[in-house]
Structures are given as structure tokens and as C-alpha cells.
Design brief:
Layout lengths: L14 H25 L5 H28 L3 H22 L2 H8 L3 H5 L3 H16 L6 H27 L3 E4 L9 H5 L9 E4 L2 H10 L3 H13 L4 H19 L5 H6 L9 H31 L11 H13 L3 H4 L5 H16 L1 E6 L10 E7 L7 E6 L11 E6 L9 E5 L9 H19 L20 H6 L6 H4 L13 H12 L2 H21 L4 H12 L16 H4 L6 H13 L10 H12 L7 H9 L6 H8 L1
Parallel strand pairs: 5-7
Antiparallel strand pairs: 1-2, 3-4, 4-5, 6-7
Helix pairs in contact: 1-2, 1-3, 2-3, 3-7, 7-11, 9-10, 13-14, 13-21, 14-20, 21-22, 24-27, 25-26
Length: 643
């Protein structure tokens, strides 16, 4: 079986026409495949599934490509064309999964044939039938027509919400004197403008250091508020319509509400289990949160006498002071060990060693921007290319503002090479250690996409597990960015000295400080995600304030509207809880590794082969049990939280 070639991308000038032509050709071919399957299906169940899987591969790959370029391409017309493609892909996907004639092809397969399917093919048939029924294929014509309208409008709203959030970059200005405390390299990269002011954007490399290091509380507050206000007021109406339409869709296909519909295909199973999980984590974190907040407030009170709570605008700054004074960790010293170029190479070295891979740089390839670096992925001791990865790691205008992994191509053995893209916004110089951890986290998704893209079915390729498991492998990989011996292989200062082990130990202790209230803050986000969908409140700001009072360690900042740029309300909808659900599992997965030998080949190989390489071929709970030799447990997380 020959190895497929990677996707050839167009240069900038040809990109818009290329996207439109590829969209037209792919959608036409997918419709032809569907018509053939509808009118002259193969006589054998396995061949029917293969035909549907090929159709799904082509449609899904087009959607992935469009979703990526809509978020990263430097030309606005290309981004717009890709957003149009996303709408077309979602429209056709809805049309196909509501097609009763197509549904009957699968539902009427002879029992003797379906009984003879191997376990993976039988799983594919089960999932395919589930996709049809969740799309409303068994509803009457009027209902299916309304579902089509809802899906099309939801696609448009998701794109609008994402676009507004991405493009609404706000700027705070400050005099050089007001930026006392900022790192020298940051100041050097931000010269004064013609008015003698320094501009601080809401992009991460600008805003995060400002919130951590600027001594002037007015500037910290201005930068924080600017970040919280992105997307407001426009996205208020966008979100309300989105919540209402999701609720209507769920009820039309027989569910109580959107969280119930969404949870039915996740590990958690039921929508009502989400608030139970949120409250369980909140209760587990309560004691630790109070102890850590007391320490933080005590330090805050020295500068703001009589304060009853730490402001969200000041939290990062005072956390940094506590780290310096209580744990002897100065982030400005720490960052001198994390030069971007060294971290970039270190990431490849560490993950290559852990998973038995090597990354070969590819230079003679067209990308969407000169910042993008490309690597082919091979087994450490083999010549068969497993996939291709693209790293787009620095901010620019018109680019996605957060950190995420995007699919460029879905991997299927012998048919299509898996290609994934990391889209992040890191400094080109020195990095905060938090950003190093984020880079390892996102790379975990990339590895999952490539290693899980070696199977025979597109439906189970890559990160195709239940959505509340998706983050677990990435969260576990963060552990390697906290290990002193691992860090010392690439974290060196300007003199070439590796980061001291005792500094890493103090960094760990400082990071442990605050994990109780960080967990509560995550539950605040999860509560927004769930209750906004469950209740569809008329006044989103008022409900935000109530949930913040119930879960967050920080009081509401007057006049802010964080939900308007809470991007997870788009993709994750009511399921932001999944980050913490996955962390519970990640801590359990990591318990199988030897902390004194994180590269032990036996356990790393089992994890790679039994979890990552299987993609969605089994339920996530079964993948975890295969690796651990037992069902997953809350114990490792609970121990970590209170330790």
C-alpha cells in the first residue's frame, strides 16, 4: 500500500480561486457519491460503509481545510471564502444526514450481513445510524426543513461569533513611566508611537505580561477590561440567537434541551450530570481555594488596605508577587530560560523521544504565511511517513487569537495522510513558562491527530473520541513541561546554563499555589457554558454576575461582558466542563508513568499504542481502561488538588 502524498497548498495570490474551485469540485463529487449510494448501493454491508466513509472523508477534509484557513490566512478575501465553504459543508452534511433514502440504505442492511461485520465496522454502522437520527432523519418533512434552517443559521452565527472575537483587537496606551515593571525585551519590542505612548493590544504576548508585571494598577485594569470587552456589544445578540436555536434543534429531535442533546454522545452521558460535576469539583476545591485566597488577599492588603477581595484585574500581578516573595520564583528570571527557538526544538526532541518519532523539516513547500514551519513525521527508526505537521506560532493581524490545533487533512491508512496545524500566539523571543506549558498541551492534540490517523476508517481518525476526553492526552503531556530533567534539555539562559532543578521545584510549588481557586474559576466558565444554554437568560450580563458570585474566586468587574468573547461558547457550547473532566482523567493516566523516568519506553509505548493510536476506535472509557488495566478514577485528581 503506497503512502499518500501531503496536500499541496496554493500561494497567496492563487488562494482565493483555489479555495473556491476545490470547494465546488469536492461538493460536486460528494453529491455524486451520495447519489450513487442512494440509487445503486453496493450489495454488501461492508462496501456500503466504505462508500459512506469515503464520502465523509472528502466532506470532512474540506471542512477542516476551510476551518483552518478561515482562521489563519492573511488575506481577508480568502478567510471569507473559507467561511462560505464552511457554511456549504455544514449545509451538505445536514442535507445528507436528513436524507431518508440514504438512511434506509443503512437501516435496511440485511441482519446476516451486519452480524458478520468486524467490531470496528459494526461500530461505524452504529455511529452512522446515530448521526442520522440525531440529525432528525426520522422526523416529518416540516421538522426536517426547520432543522436545516437552524443548522445553516447556527453555522453562520458560529462563524460570526468567531470572526468578531478574532478581529476585535483592542488597544490600551500607556506612557513608558506607567509601564514600570515590564520586562526589558517586551519594552524593546514595543517602542513609543508618535504621541510618545506605548500600545498594548489584547493579544496574549502583549496583554499577559502587562497584567503580570506592570506596577501601575490603572494600566493593569485597563488592559484587563479591554480583554474582557472584546466582542461587546455585538456578540450579545449573536449568542442569544445561538442559544435559542440550539435549544429548538435539541427539542425537535426529542431531547429536553441542548445540554441533554450535546451530552448524549459524550462520556458524561446526560446533561443533568454536568452541573453535578461542576458542583463536585467546586466543593472539592473550596478548602484549598480559601487557603490560597487568604494568602493572596494578605499580600494585596499591603498595597490596597481594607480590600475584601482581590480584583480580577490585579490577580495575576499579585500571584506573581506571592511567587516571588513566598516561593522565590521571579517570572522575569524564569522567562530568560525559555527562548522561543530553543523551546520549539526542545518540544520536538521531547515528544520524538517519548513517542518514538522523528520530525524532518520540510522547506520546499507552500504555506499560508512565512511564519509557518512544516515537518514530516516518521517512526524514529522507519522511513514510512506517518503525517505532516504545520506550526503557526506567532500573532499577526487577522489570525485566530488563542491556541488550538486545527485539522488540515484527516488521516486514513493508504488513502490520506494526516496533517495537523498548531495555531498559537507566542512571543518570538522569551516565553512565559505558562506559554511553554500551553505549547506542550496543544502539541498533544497534534500528536493525537497524527498517531490516530493511521486506521482504516475516517470516522475514527485522530482526535475522534468523545469530546470530554479530547483534552486528557494534551493535559497529560503538560507534565513533561514541568519536569526539571526534561526542561534542562532545552531550557537554557543566554549563557547556556540549564534551568536549575531547585528553581523548577520552586516553580512547581508556586504553580500549586492557587490551584484551588483556579479550579473554581474553571467551574465558573463551565457554569456559564452550561447555564447559558440551559436557561437562555434574557440578561446575559446579570446571569454572568450571579454565576461569578457563586463560583469564581474574583468579584465581577463592573461594566464588563466576558461572555462576548468566550470563544468556547461557539465550539464547546454547553460542554466547557470537559476541560476539568479531562483533567481528572489526565491525572489518572499520568499515575501510570514513573515520575523518575518519564521516558520509560514500555509505559510510553503502551500509552501511544492503546490510547493515542486508536483514535475513536473504542469508547474513551475503554481506551483508558485498556491502558490503566482498570476503570478511570477521581482519586488521582482529588489527591493532586489537595496536596
Amino acid at each position: 500500500m503506497s503512502t499518500p502524498e501531503p496536500l499541496a497548498l496554493p500561494d497567496t495570490e492563487a488562494a482565493e480561486a483555489w479555495v473556491k474551485e476545490r470547494t465546488s469540485a469536492t461538493l460536486t463529487h460528494v453529491r455524486e457519491l451520495a447519489e450513487r449510494l442512494r440509487t445503486a448501493p453496493p450489495s454488501q454491508a461492508l462496501e456500503v460503509l466504505k462508500a459512506w466513509d469515503q464520502l465523509s472523508l472528502e466532506l470532512g477534509s474540506l471542512g477542516g481545510l476551510a476551518g483552518l484557513l478561515a482562521n489563519v490566512h492573511p488575506v481577508e478575501a480568502v478567510r471569507t471564502a473559507c467561511e462560505d465553504t464552511e457554511v456549504e459543508v455544514d449545509r451538505l452534511r445536514t442535507e445528507l444526514t436528513q436524507d431518508q433514502a440514504l438512511y434506509r440504505v443503512f437501516a435496511d442492511l440485511p441482519e446476516e450481513q451486519t452480524a458478520a461485520l468486524d467490531p470496528l465496522a459494526a461500530r461505524l454502522l452504529e455511529k452512522t445510524l446515530q448521526d442520522f437520527t440525531r440529525a432528525g432523519v426520522d422526523r416529518d418533512d416540516a421538522t426536517r426543513s426547520r432543522l436545516t434552517e437552524i443548522n445553516e443559521r447556527l453555522t453562520e452565527l458560529n462563524l460570526e461569533f468567531s470572526r468578531v472575537t478574532r478581529d476585535d483587537v483592542r488597544i490600551t496606551t500607556a506612557t513608558p513611566e506607567q509601564l514600570d515593571g515590564m520586562p526589558a525585551d517586551w519594552l524593546e519590542a514595543h517602542p513609543v508611537n508618535d504621541k510618545g505612548l506605548v500600545e498594548i493590544t489584547t493579544d496574549y504576548p502583549d496583554a499577559l505580561p502587562a497584567r503580570m508585571f506592570v506596577k501601575d494598577p490603572a494600566i493593569r485594569r485597563a488592559v484587563t477590561v479591554a480583554g474582557l470587552e472584546r466582542g461587546w456589544p455585538h456578540n450579545d445578540a449573536v449568542l442569544k440567537e445561538m442559544f435559542a436555536l440550539r435549544h429548538e434543534l435539541a427539542t425537535l429531535v426529542g431531547y429536553e434541551d441542548w445540554p441533554a442533546f450535546d451530552a448524549a454522545v459524550k462520556m458524561i452521558g446526560e446533561g443533568s450530570a454536568i452541573p453535578e460535576f461542576i458542583d463536585r469539583i467546586a466543593a472539592a476545591a473550596e478548602g484549598r481555594m480559601k487557603r490560597d485566597l487568604e494568602v493572596l488577599l494578605d499580600r494585596y492588603d499591603r498595597d490596597v488596605p481594607g480590600a475584601s477581595a482581590v480584583s480580577a484585574a490585579d490577580a495575576l500581578y499579585y500571584e506573581e508577587l506571592v511567587r516571588q516573595e513566598k516561593y522565590d520564583v521571579d517570572s522575569q528570571v524564569v522567562r530568560t530560560y525559555f527562548d522561543f527557538a530553543k523551546v520549539h526544538q526542545g518540544l520536538l526532541d521531547v515528544t520524538g523521544r517519548l513517542f518514538g518519532l522523528r520530525y524532518e523539516p520540510v522547506s520546499d513547500v507552500v504555506t499560508w504565511h512565512e511564519d509557518v514551519s512544516v515537518f514530516d513525521v516518521y517512526p524514529h527508526d522507519g522511513d514510512e511517513r506517518l503525517g505532516r505537521i504545520h506550526l503557526d506560532l506567532h500573532p499577526r493581524e487577522g489570525k485566530y487569537k488563542h491556541a488550538a490545533q486545527f485539522d488540515l487533512a484527516t488521516g486514513v491508512k493508504g488513502r490520506q495522510l494526516p496533517e495537523g496545524v498548531l495555531v498559537c500566539n507566542f512571543s518570538r523571543g522569551l516565553m512565559e513558562h505558562d506559554h511553554v506549558v500551553t505549547l506542550f498541551h496543544e502539541f498533544g492534540h497534534l500528536i493525537h491527530h497524527v498517531l490516530g490517523g493511521q486506521g482504516e476508517w475516517a470516522r475514527f481518525s485522530g482526535v475522534a473520541t468523545e469530546w470530554d476526553f479530547v483534552e486528557a492526552p494534551s493535559q497529560m503531556l503538560e507534565e513533561w513541561a514541568w519536569d526539571a530533567e526534561v526542561l534542562q534539555t532545552f531550557a537554557t539562559n543566554e549563557a547556556g546554563e540549564p534551568i536549575p532543578a531547585d528553581l523548577v521545584a520552586r516553580m512547581r510549588a508556586a504553580d500549586d499555589f492557587g490551584k484551588g481557586y483556579h479550579a473554581r474559576q474553571q467551574m465558573f466558565y463551565a457554569a456559564i457554558s452550561y447555564w447559558f444554554h440551559k436557561e437562555q437568560p434574557e440578561d446575559l450580563t446579570k446571569r454572568l454576575q450571579e454565576l461569578q458570585a457563586a463560583y469564581s474566586p474574583y468579584p465581577y468587574l463592573d461594566g464588563t461582558h466576558f461572555f462576548a468573547n468566550f470563544g468556547h461558547l461557539g465550539g464547546y457550547s454547553s460542554a466547557y466542563y470537559t476541560y476539568m473532566w479531562s483533567l481528572v482523567i489526565a491525572k489518572d493516566l499520568f499515575s501510570a508513568f514513573d515520575r523518575d523516568d518519564l521516558f520509560a519506553p514500555e509505559v510510553a509505548g503502551r500509552y501511544r499504542d492503546l490510547v493515542l493510536a486508536r483514535g475513536g476506535e473504542k469508547d474513551a472509557a475503554d481506551l483508558v481502561a485498556d491502558f490503566l488495566g482498570r476503570p478511570y478514577s477521581f482519586d488521582a485528581y482529588a489527591t493532586w488538588l489537595v496536596s
